[in-house]
Design a protein that fits this description.
- The protein has 15 helices and two strands.
- A two-stranded antiparallel ribbon has the order 1-2.
- With 313 residues, the protein is mainly α.
- Strand 1 and strand 2 form a beta hairpin.
- The N terminus is likely disordered.
- The chain starts with a helix and ends in a 12-residue tail after the last helix.
């Protein structure tokens, strides 16, 4: 074999390795690979959304044929005081969930990423709520907080008459607490994965410079968890805007309409009043608001412009 042919082969090998590293010239999967997922998304997400949008401009009781009524449903909701109250309550519950769950999730997630004694056992116990449905959790907490035979009835010195859900402030506090207990493990799991991806050399360098655990957490852990935090907050926002089963089982929108959020009001309009047109309008509002808030968070945080932080990518 001549020296020239060896040089050509060596050059070709270097070019292939360069292309593999840079991604230039590498064959990518065709559009056919995305076709099943695209069809699934169109069939079970886009099509139902389009049908809901169409129903929001009709009058339909679920039995007779839908009748087009223009903007009647939207006008009705615009002047409905319960709808206005439900929107504000939805925003309050959503903001309260983010404010309460975020710091707790970060601290637990970072702790679970360490190597403490019995950490694995305690983490497994703490993550048990992830195995339960929201309905099961709501039923359990409704029994625990029952004013007649639950924990509050035994601790009157702390809970007064024991009827925690007898006022709007108490009911909102209960919904926020149950949401904290239910969803914090999931977000803590996100932060645990993010904390374990932080290079240990950063902490080693900080320790050499004399930084303690608090300074390391503030100047290394939190900045490195920025991407995870944005993802977690977006999930909290969407989840808070669409909370339904917890309200249905714990408070049923009461007392009165004090805990009737938008998702529960949609259920009342559609499945109790048999006004599926108004219910569809509320559902469409929730979809639009959740989408806009998510886009705003992503835009303001710069998440849409982020690139991989892995070396060489």
């Amino acid at each position: 074999m001549s020296a020239s042919s060896l040089g050509v082969r060596a050059g070709s090998g270097r070019r292939l390795r360069t292309r593999a590293r840079t991604g230039v010239g590498v064959t990518r999967p065709g559009l056919g690979w995305a076709l099943p997922a695209t069809l699934f998304f169109l069939l079970f997400a886009i099509l139902p959304l389009v049908l809901v949008a169409v129903l929001s401009f009709t009058s339909w009781n679920g039995v007779e044929a839908p009748r087009f009524n223009g903007l009647a449903n939207w006008t009705k909701l615009l002047h409905d005081p319960v709808m206005t109250q439900s929107v504000w309550l939805t925003l309050v519950l959503t903001v309260a969930g983010v404010v309460v769950q975020t710091p707790v999730s970060i601290l637990l997630g970072v702790w679970a990423a360490g190597h403490q004694r019995n950490r694995a056992v305690l983490s497994a116990i703490f993550f048990i709520p992830l195995l339960l449905s929201a309905t099961a959790i709501s039923v359990v907490w409704r029994a625990i907080l029952d004013p007649n035979f639950g924990v509050p009835s035994e601790l009157e010195w702390l809970f007064g008459d024991g009827n925690l859900m007898g006022s709007q402030s108490g009911a909102v506090a209960v919904l926020t607490f149950v949401g904290l207990w239910q969803w914090t493990p999931m977000h803590a799991l996100l932060y645990q994965g993010g904390a374990r991806a932080i290079p240990p050399v950063l902490y080693q360098a900080a320790a050499i410079d004399g930084a303690g655990r608090v300074r390391q957490f503030r100047h290394i852990t939190l900045p490195q968890l920025r991407n995870t935090m944005i993802t977690s907050v977006v999930l909290m926002l969407v989840g808070g805007l669409t909370t339904f089963d917890t309200v249905l089982i714990l408070t049923q929108g009461g007392p009165g309409t004090d805990t009737t959020n938008s998702a529960y009001y949609m259920y009342q309009q559609a499945f109790k009043s048999f006004d599926f047109g108004a219910g569809s309008a509320i559902a469409l509002i929730l979809v639009v608001v959740a989408t806009l808030i998510s886009l705003v968070v992503v835009r303001l945080s710069g998440y849409d412009k982020m690139r991989s932080t892995a070396e060489g990518l």
